[in-house]
């Protein structure tokens, strides 16, 4: 597209002419007694949505916090694909109806799944990956040509890759993880693959924490998994795998008075970027790890899975 900027000049009247993609040129308009300078800069054209465009979604409720669409749309452009991702604000009570309807949308290729649908989506899909079944949650689905839906879980892989991308190694280190839901469970299983020293689970529901511990021990018999509380003292890495901190007034996921310099404090929340937990961690001298690193490192994986 062209960006046009105007400025007055005192040059004699003249007929304008185009010269270069970016220029400041005199241009005369009928009825105007002055000549104006028209500065024209050519910017990259944005992709147009056509009748051939493939549609991708991100199922969430609400959608104001989602960050994936710009990244996926950038990947589509880089790969030369005629596809677009849009946010779909779907309340939990409407999820089944919406997902079943998407089976019949023939130019729909798949969707990222986020809060609060990661666990509910499993029963609505025809095929579920082993990791998604293990953690009882999925964060991406693919629509096959016959309308079948396939679910997978990439949260944990993406989170660990994000840590590694910031030169934060988890092997041999003690980890305190808050949460036992979809994202936290996926992270726990991914950590189990990394030969960490210990994993302490902190969750409001001790029943869910025990269930996750039992699943982890079954999958990784040599992994030292413990049930803990909000005190992360003595751990190398502290992870918030919940939505606590997304809304104003949310409780802190851990007792921040026990944070100490040298700890790494990591988030899965992307909006706000600096959660109250991360702010407290910075004040305590900890190294902080932003939530967007998890998404950044799994977008390519999601695009591959969907077939972008």
UniProtKB/TrEMBL annotation:
It holds the Pfam family Shikimate_dh_N. Pathway: Metabolic intermediate biosynthesis; chorismate biosynthesis; chorismate from D-erythrose 4-phosphate and phosphoenolpyruvate: step 4/7. GO terms for biological process: aromatic amino acid family biosynthetic process; chorismate biosynthetic process; shikimate metabolic process. Residues 58-141 form the Shikimate dehydrogenase substrate binding N-terminal domain. Transmembrane segments: none annotated. One of its GO terms (molecular function) is NADP binding. Gene3D superfamilies: Leucine Dehydrogenase, chain A, domain 1 (3.40.50.10860), NAD(P)-binding Rossmann-like Domain (3.40.50.720). Coiled coil: none annotated. InterPro entries: Aminoacid_DH-like_N_sf, NAD(P)-bd_dom_sf, Shikimate_DH-bd_N, Shikimate_DH_fam. SUPFAM superfamilies: Aminoacid dehydrogenase-like, N-terminal domain, NAD(P)-binding Rossmann-fold domains. It comes from the Bacteria. GO terms for cellular component: cytosol. Keywords: Amino-acid biosynthesis, Aromatic amino acid biosynthesis, Oxidoreductase. The keyword Manganese does not apply. This is Shikimate dehydrogenase.
């Amino acid at each position: 597209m062209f960006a046009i900027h105007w400025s007055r000049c005192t040059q004699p009247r003249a007929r304008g002419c185009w010269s270069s993609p970016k220029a400041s040129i005199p241009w005369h308009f009928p009825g105007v007694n002055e000549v104006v300078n028209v500065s024209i800069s050519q910017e990259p054209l944005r992709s147009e949505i056509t009748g051939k465009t493939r549609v991708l979604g991100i199922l969430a409720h609400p959608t104001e916090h989602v960050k994936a669409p710009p990244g996926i749309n950038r990947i589509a452009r880089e790969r030369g694909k005629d596809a677009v991702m849009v946010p779909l604000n779907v309340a939990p009570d409407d999820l089944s109806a919406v997902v079943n309807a998407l089976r019949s949308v023939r130019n729909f290729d798949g969707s990222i799944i986020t809060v609060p649908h990661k666990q509910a989506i499993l029963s609505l899909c025809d095929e579920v990956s082993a990791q998604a079944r293990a953690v009882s949650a999925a964060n991406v689905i693919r629509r096959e040509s016959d309308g079948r839906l396939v679910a997978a879980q990439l949260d944990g892989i993406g989170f660990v890759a994000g840590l590694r991308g910031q030169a934060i190694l988890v092997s041999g280190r003690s980890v305190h993880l808050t949460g036992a839901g979809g994202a936290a469970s996926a992270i726990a299983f991914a950590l189990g693959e990394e030969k960490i020293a210990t994993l302490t689970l902190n969750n409001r529901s001790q029943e869910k924490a025990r269930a996750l511990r039992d699943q982890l021990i079954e999958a990784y018999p040599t992994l030292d998994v413990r049930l803990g509380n909000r005190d992360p003292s003595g751990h190398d890495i502290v992870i918030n795998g919940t939505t606590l901190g997304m809304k104003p007034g949310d409780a802190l996921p851990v007792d921040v008075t026990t944070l100490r310099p040298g700890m790494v404090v990591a988030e899965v929340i992307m909006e706000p970027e600096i959660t109250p937990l991360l702010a407290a961690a910075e004040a305590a001298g900890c190294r902080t790890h932003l939530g967007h690193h998890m998404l950044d490192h799994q977008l390519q994986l999601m695009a591959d899975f969907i077939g972008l």
